[in-house]
């Protein structure tokens, strides 16, 4: 396989905002007396704000109107936005900046494929905008992960065929999206949730350009 592009997920891959999403949903669920733990949270990773809310509300018994759901989602987002206020380049996950730089030095195109409407704010705070040739976020696509649209749109904007792209994800739904797009998938996290990925690493400190090339060669 020839690699011409690397497409990154944001939350949980470039920075630990996955933890902030968890905290904000947990606060909302507690307020609604809906059981919510880390294991349940795993299936929310990568899903859109409204899809996540739907899954949480299904755990409770109370019905909510469309208007109420919009208010609950807005409340979670307000809390999340407070939590991301303090993000700075120090919050890049271990090894991520050097990997992103290695990829650029190798002359490979790079893109972001995020399900978050807050993606632009986060990458600006992290100061990684220059390391990304294109940014595709929830505002630019119709279908959320596990649909491949966000990854396919990024590949299209980079003018690279999906079969020459590597996608990097921490979410099961995201790995599914990468595989449905016909790309090589790197999963960051537990094998239990990311079994569909071509290569699973426990955390981003294990992400190096040489290892990735090696893995792909051995395939
Ligand atoms: C994804 C996260 O990147 O963005 C999800 O993995 C989150 O947990 C989704 O729900 C939507 O984010 P936002 O910022 O638009 O609410
Ligand atoms: Mg993620």
Description:
The chain is of the alpha/beta class and 219 residues long. It is 44% helix and 11% strand. It has 9 helices and 6 strands, in the order βαααααβαβαβαββα. The protein has a 6-stranded parallel sheet with strand order 3-2-1-4-5-6, with helices on both faces. It is globular and about 50 Å long. The mean pLDDT is 97. The structure holds 6-O-phosphono-beta-D-glucopyranose and magnesium ion (MG). Residues 10-11, 18, 21, 44-49, 52, 77, 114-118, 138, 171 line the site of 6-O-phosphono-beta-D-glucopyranose.
Present as ligands are:
6-O-phosphono-beta-D-glucopyranose, magnesium ion
Strand content: 5-15%
SSE topology string? EHHHHHEHEHEHEEH
The strands making up the biggest β-sheet line up spatially as 3-2-1-4-5-6
Poorly predicted regions: none
| Secondary-structure-derived class | alpha/beta
Largest sheet: 6 strands, parallel
Give the helices and strands, then pairings.
Blueprint: E1 5-8, H1 17-31, H2 38-42, H3 49-58, H4 66-84, H5 96-105, E2 109-113, H6 119-126, E3 134-136, H7 149-158, E4 165-169, H8 172-180, E5 184-188, E6 199-201, H9 209-218
Helix pairs in contact: 1-4, 3-4
Bound molecules: 6-O-phosphono-beta-D-glucopyranose and magnesium ion.
6-O-phosphono-beta-D-glucopyranose binds at residues 10-11, 18, 21, 44-49, 52, 77, 114-118, 138, 171.
